[in-house]
Design a protein that fits this description.
The chain has 422 residues and is an alpha+beta fold. It is 50% helix and 16% strand. Strand 6 and strand 7 (196-203) form a beta hairpin. Helix 2 packs antiparallel against helix 9, helix 2 (13-45) crosses helix 12 and helix 9 (279-322) packs across helix 13.
């Protein structure tokens, strides 16, 4: 049958060449769109490395000198750093709060970031240190956001059992020591620095948002209250981030009542809790431009899919309808209805298969010029099968629909009547 179909396709090459060009263009465009959408979805679904469920960001304010209740410096018996620690302890002691923590430049879904160079302590002095994103936080921060190591164990107990003041991600461990364990290793701020620091633990890879790939980064630990007090002196208390994780069952609409109950404990000297914002709300606002783009891309692909569906189905519908006489002749010569439909379906799939070699050449050239997104998602056999295979299956289904309906109708016509068209 295949050999016979190939002869027919060749004999009808003048009309088939336009169908072939249409299929070639559609397959190439569809592969590009499906590959882009595949990367977005896979990246979005990958683990973030932290959990913001029921986590709130507490914004710290400072009373102005012209506001009643302001405590002059000469009357204060503690520094702002100590006041800030007391304020967080007040929040932590509430029965509705699971854990609270202070941090700096460590808030997910925000533009407040800090960067610093870091290098292995054993590196040669000629080697240049690379710059990585730096987070500064208390050990309790890892409980608030439920960080784990690569085996899935909670990170905070590991940090408290070991010495050292750095936590690095698995990406940095892989970059620095190429698969060897980084826990207990020494690192420095630069190759010429005399001071070295110990890596306490290694966390899972951390991603900035659902649309970004994980990058090497590290956490500088505030091991003691004195560390916080020293940093508050230059960073200012209002710029220090405070996070609380509420216990299970707490709802966002209960926050106002919670703050009213805690009102007398939300002020320490000149520092007070100015507002509390759920990180889920911050996430939605921060990701809105990206989610809008993903929605637009999905709508565009859906629109293209509908247009291609009607185009491909209409083309093969008319092509099958045009050959009613030929099908009637075959029926008169003894071909069964199922054989007629099978014949037309195989012929349509043969036309689609002819586009595969040229589309593969197109894909190879796209990869050669690094046009697909291989940064967030490496190009693998699985990715190829999902995108290219899915494109071919989708178009094969459209061709089948375009052939099946008219072929079903023609197969029911009496052969003698079909011969009139011939």
């Amino acid at each position: 049958m295949i050999k016979h179909i190939l002869k027919i396709i060749w004999n009808q090459r003048r009309s088939n060449v336009w169908i072939f060009m249409e299929l070639l263009l559609v397959v190439a465009i569809f592969w590009v769109m499906m590959d882009s959408l595949f990367v977005d979805i896979c990246t979005y679904k990958a683990p973030l490395g932290f959990d913001i469920t029921n986590v709130y960001k507490v914004n710290i304010g400072k009373i102005s000198p012209d506001v009643p209740g302001y405590v002059p410096d000469e009357l204060r018996q503690s520094s702002e750093g100590v006041d800030l620690i007391r304020l967080v302890d007040n929040l932590r002691q509430s029965p509705k709060v699971e854990e609270a923590s202070l941090a700096y430049a460590s808030c997910p879904y925000s533009w407040n970031t800090s960067w610093s160079s870091l290098i292995q302590a054993e590196a040669d002095t000629t080697q240049k240190a690379n710059t990585y994103q730096r987070f500064i936080a208390q050990p309790s921060y890892f409980d608030v956001f439920r960080f784990t190591d690569q085996e899935g164990n909670p990170l905070r107990p590991i940090i408290e059992q070991r010495s050292g003041n750095l936590v690095i991600t698995a990406d940095m461990e892989r970059n620095f020591w190429n698969g060897q364990s980084g826990a207990g290793r020494q690192v420095k701020w630069s190759s010429t620095s005399a001071e070295s620091m110990t890596v306490t633990a290694v966390s899972t890879p951390i991603r900035r948002t659902e649309f970004d790939k994980s990058e090497p980064c590290f956490y500088l630990l505030w091991r003691s209250d004195q560390d916080i007090v020293e940093d508050v002196e230059w960073a200012q208390a209002q710029n220090i981030e405070c996070f609380i994780r509420m216990k299970n069952g707490f709802r966002a609409e209960d926050m106002e009542a919670f703050l009213q109950q805690m009102s007398d404990r939300l002020t320490v000297n000149n520092l007070y809790v100015s507002s509390v914002k759920p990180l889920q709300e911050m996430r939605a606002s921060f990701l809105k431009p990206r989610t809008d783009n993903l929605t637009k891309k999905s709508v565009l692909i859906g629109f293209m899919l509908v247009n291609v569906f009607f185009g491909i189905v209409g083309t093969f519908w008319l092509r099958t309808q045009y050959r009613r006489g030929e099908l009637g002749l075959r029926a008169a010569l003894g071909a069964s209805r199922s054989k007629l439909k099978q014949f037309m379906n195989v012929e349509g799939l043969c036309l689609l298969s002819f586009t595969v070699p040229l589309v593969l050449i197109f894909i190879v050239n796209m990869l050669y010029f690094d046009m697909p997104d291989t940064y967030r998602q490496p190009y693998s056999l699985w990715r190829f099968l999902m995108t290219f295979g899915g494109t071919c299956l989708l178009l094969a289904g459209m061709i089948w629909v375009g052939i099946w309906f008219p072929a079903q109708k023609i197969a029911k016509i009496d052969p003698a009547e079909s011969l009139h068209y011939e």
